[in-house]
Amino acid sequence: MTPTLVRQHQHLAPPAAHGHRDAYARARDWAEIQERMLVPLYEAVYARLEIGTGDRLLGLGCGSGLALLMAAARGASVTGTDTDGRRLALAEERLRPGTAPHGSPADGPRVVGGGPAAVAAEGGPRFTAVTAFDPQSGADGELVPMLTAAAALAERGSPVVIAGWGPPERCATASVLRTATRQAARPPDLGPGYGSAPGGWRPYGRDALEEAAHRAGLRPDGSGRLSCPFGYADPESAVRGLLSTRLFDAAAEAADEAQVEKELAEALHPYVRRDGTVWMPNVFRYLIARV
Q1: CA 220 – CA 159 distance, rounded (Å)
Q2: What is the rounded radius of gyration, in angstroms, for the C-alpha atoms of the chain?
Q3: Is the dihedral of CA 152, 157, 161, 167 positive or negative?
Q4: In the prediction, which pLDDT does 5 show?
Q5: Phi/psi at 145 (nearest 5 deg)?
Q6: pLDDT tens-digit profile of 124-150?
Q7: pTM recorded for the entire structure
């Protein structure tokens, strides 16, 4: 990955007093620590779909815009949506004219607060590809309605990509993320196709992505698995990065935030290497469906 795609850790905001960090600092941690962990997923999908000049890509749950930036670097016209205004502000900063990759389309990248309905309200040509890369995109049962609305904005036959965690036994991070579930009340079952909920992380079922696609009126047309390790410079960066996923928010509300950070740091101990870095191998899965 080139240095232009990810800011260096020295730009991170310092920790706030008593170990607590405000919502903007968490969003910045996502942009500068955690989001880059998904780069292998972005690269694999874009290569398989041959995303490039002439493509119009809609990124659902675009976060702070790294996936959009990478698609724009390939020549695609990109639009992103997210409901987190702080992450979206960072995406705007990352994609603003003068910082977007040289050679990106003349109309430039854009980000829209909200979901597909907000994009529809702005108008514009139909999309030729849709992505939902965030493995937490199923929270609160919003994934299927979001995919259904996005499909209505895409050309017939366009690919819609949904990503999720692989089998828990092949995801080292799973054991760490389970601490969020233990610290918060167990959420109600949201049904197949959802990998997380307000109470914390939950693994995907074997056919969860296919079931979500079917429920959204999409036709599955291939899938893939890939290695997507989570690596951090030190345990502190790992704690900050994982907290920025928002999977620990309910736990922090149910318990003292300092206690959540303490238990998370303890769960990371098995993955700290001799040089002080943290390394957790994971397998991610993606599904390609068609409108």
Answers
A1: 9
A2: 18
A3: positive
A4: 35
A5: -60, -35
A6: 899 999 999 987 755 446 889 999 999
A7: 0.84
